[in-house]
Amino acid sequence: MERFLERHADHVLGVLCGFDRLLFRGTLRRLSYVSGLECFLSRHKVLFKDFGAWAERMSQRLKEHAHRIAKEQGRPVRYVASSTSSKEELAQEIMQRDQITQGLVCVLTCVEPCQTYNLRRDRQSKRLQLVPGQRKCLHLYFYYVDREFGLMHVRLQTWLPFTLDVCLNGREYLARRMQRAGMGYQQRENCFTRIDDLPRAQQMLDDLLHRKWHRFLDRLAQRVNPWLDAHNGLDLEGYYWTLRQGEVATDVMFRSPQDLQDIYPALVQHALTQFSCQDVLRFLGRRTKGNFSGEISSDLQSRPEGLRVKHWVEENSIKMYDKQGSVLRIETTINNPRRFRVYREATRQGESCLAWQPLRKGIADLARRVEISRAANERYLEALSVVGRPAPTSNVLDPVSRRVVRAGRPYRALRPLTPEEAAVFRSVLRGEHLVQGFRHVDLRQDLFPTATEEHVRRQAAGRTTRWLRLLRAHGLIKKVPRTHYYRVTDKGHHTMSTALRLRDLDITALAA
Predict the structure, then answer these.
(1) pLDDT range class, residue 63, cuts 50, 70, 90
(2) What is the rounded CA–CA span in Å between residue 47 and residue 38?
(3) Could you tell me the sign of the dihedral formed by the alpha carbons of 123, 128, 131, 135, in that order?
(4) What is the chain's Cα-based Rg?
(5) If we measure between CA atoms, which residue out of 389, 419, 381 comes closest to residue 495?
(6) What's the CATH code of the domain at 451?
(7) CA distance 165 to 85
(8) For the chain, how far is it from start to end, CA to CA, in angstroms?
(9) Which of the 8 DSSP states describes residue 294?
(10) Euclidean distance between CA atoms 164 and 142, whole angstroms
(11) How many CB atoms are closer than 10 A to CB 45?
(12) Are strands 351-358 and 477-479 parallel, antiparallel or unpaired?
C-alpha cells in the first residue's frame, strides 16, 4: 500500500481503515440444534404433541413484549408488508420526523424466511420427530439511536430458536467519537472525505477491536427478549455471539473528485484485465493448491455514482469502488471465516499447545479477522500501484537494460521485452508468490515443467540459479534472510509489470 500512496502522494489526504458495517448474530445454543431442543423440551415437560401450542405461546410473549416497550416509550409499531422494503429508510424517516436523538425510534414488524424446526411423523417408528426446516415467521426490528453507534437495529426472530441479529455501523461510531472530541471532519453518507487528525481517528476506530462486545450485545438482547429473564425459569444462559458479517474498508481520501476520477478508470481496467484467479486468491491470503475446487469470479457493476469491481473467492470477497467522488474504497467482506487460520491454543495428543486453527465465527477472533482483511486491502492497493505512473517507460526499463557489476562480478543487461525474459517475469509475479514469496524449486518447475529426467533437471536447476542471480543483481528480487524464499522488490514489481504491460499492449493503441 505504501507504493500506491507514494505514487499519488500529491493527490491523497490520507487513509482510514476499519469496520464499515458489523452484523452480529446471537444464538441460543440450547435451542440451536435438534438434540438440544429435545433435551430442553424434556426438561420442561413439553410433549411433541403440545409443541405447536407451546411454541406459539413463546412467540406471542415476544410480540407482546415488543408492543409494551413501544407503548411505554411512546414509539410507533409499524408493519412492513414486503421483506424487500428498506426498513432503514422508514426508520430514518420516523427519526427525522419525530427528532429522535437517543433511544428507541420505532418497532417494525415483517414476515420473513427463517430457519426453525418442524414436526414430522416417522413412518417406520410411527412417532413424531423434530427436524430442522425453513418457514416464514414474524420478525421484530427494534431501531435505536445509540449514543455511540447512532442509528442501529436489533432483529429478533419470533419463532424458535429466537435468533437475534444486531447491525451496527463503524463509520457512524467514529463520527460520533470525533464529534465529542471536537475534531474537524467532513462526512458524506457512510464515508469521510476529510479528517483533520487522521492518526487519532484511526486509533478511535481501532478501539472497536478491543471492545467487550459480549456485554454490549447481551444488554441489547435482554432488552428485547423477555425469555432471557432468570425469573422465567427457562435457564437459556444467554446468547452466543458470532460476527456473521464484518466489512473492513480501507478508504483512500483524495484531495478532490477530479484527482480520483483521473486515475479511477485505469484502476478499474487494470483490476479486470490484469488480476488473475491466482492474484485474487493471494489478495485474500489463500494459497493456490491443486485440490482447490472453489469458485473464483470477478464482476463489474455500474452504479449511479460510479463503477464497482468485485472479486469473489467462494463465500468471501474483496471489492473496489469510488465513494462520494473523492474516496477510493477497498473493502474485504468475510462471510465464511473458516477459510482462514488463527494462531491460538489447541490440543495435540492430549497436550495443550499453540497451533494454527480455523478462524472461528465467534467474536473471540474478531481482531484476527480485521488483521486478515486489512492485509487483503493493502495487497490489493499494492497491486494497483503500477497504475497511473506518469513517467515514460524508458525511465523504468533503461536502468535494467544496462550491464551491472555486483560484488565484483559483472552481470549482463536484461532484455525486458523478449519472450524468454517475459516468461521469467510472469512466473516471478504470479499471485501465489505475493504473500510468502517463491523458492528456487517453484521457479524451476514453472519455467521448465517438462524437465523430469535427472540430467535435464540438473540443467534446468542451473539455469534457474543463474536467473535468480541475474534478477538479484538488478535489484528486482531479494532473498528472505534465513529462508529459501525470494520476494519481489518494489523496483521489481514496477519494472517487470511495466515490461509485461508494454509487451501485451495492442499496437493499435500505440498507433492511436
Answers:
(1) very high
(2) 10
(3) positive
(4) 28
(5) 389
(6) 1.10.10
(7) 18
(8) 33
(9) -
(10) 11
(11) 7
(12) unpaired
For residue 63, tell me if it sits in a domain: no
In a domain, 388, yes or no: no
Per the structure, the complete domain to which residue 424 belongs is given by 399-511
- Give the ranges where 227-315 is alpha helix by DSSP (H): 257-261, 264-274, 277-283
Q: Is the peptide bond before 226 cis (omega within 30 degrees of 0)?
A: no
Name the domain count of the chain: 1
Q: Which DSSP symbol is given to 172?
A: H
Residue with cell 524464499: 485
Element (H, E) at 395: helix 393-397
Residue 419 lies in a domain: yes
Which residue has 459480549 as its cell numbers?
214
| Of 249, 250, 240, residue with least CA distance to 213 | 240
Helix axes 454-473, 419-428, angle to 10 degrees: 80
DSSP state of 237: -
Q: How far apart are CA 417 and CA 423, in angstroms?
A: 10
Residue-wise pLDDT tens digits, 158-211: 998 999 999 999 999 999 999 999 999 999 888 999 999 999 999 999 999 989
At 231 the pLDDT is 80
DSSP type of residue 402: S
Residue 44 CB neighbours (<10 A): 11
| Dihedral angle over CA of 234, 240, 244, 246, nearest 10 | 140
Write out the three cell numbers for 61: 410473549
Alpha-helical (H) ranges within 284-392 are 366-383
> 306 CB contacts (<8 Å, ≥6 apart)?
264, 321, 322
373, 332 in Cβ contact below 8 A? yes
Q: Which three cell numbers stand for residue 339?
A: 477459510
Provide the 3-class DSSP secondary structure of residue 475. Answer: coil
Phi-psi category of residue 238: left, alpha or beta, with phi > 0 → left and psi -120 to 50 → alpha: left
Residue 495 is assigned to a structural domain of this protein: yes
State the pTM of this model: 0.75
